[in-house]
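Look at a sample.

——
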Amino acid sequence: MSDVVASPPPTQLRAFKAVLEPRSGWQAIHFGELWSYRELLFILAGRDIKVRYKQTVLGAAWALIQPLLQTIVFVAFFSGLAPNGVDPQIFFFSGSLIWQLFATSVASAGNSLIGNQNLIAKVYFPRLVIPIASVIVSLTDFCVGKCQGNVLMRATMSGEHTDFSAPPSAAKK
């Protein structure tokens, strides 16, 4: 007796061929698929946050210094443009913080696709994960700046001197 199992005749074998083709037109976002790749999303975002702050001389302090320096410049040159009754420091700080979030999100989302093109070409995952991860990095900067803005608003409400355009000696008068 032989333990060899006969293979089916060649006419019964069916060839399997997978063809992946891009869909045409606008496509709906598959949130379930994004949810299943959430771990990859957080890994990519964490990697980008680490790289972003390790490459700067000031590190994470840059997220605090950048909006503050923008506010100082805006208050020095455009303090007359702030609406009456609104503290110019808070006005310009909040405006520059929102603009910084928008500008860095759009720029980094576009650059992230170019920077990760090798990953996109080799492995399947929802392509929307990469731009979302770069926007998460911009949101971390925004959250740090928002905390700084809260401190600035509390200092302004308590009557402490926060006029960046005037020298400290003028505040004591």
Remarks:
- The radius of gyration is 27 Å.
- Residues 59-158 form one domain.
- The CA atoms of residues 105 and 145 lie 15 Å apart.
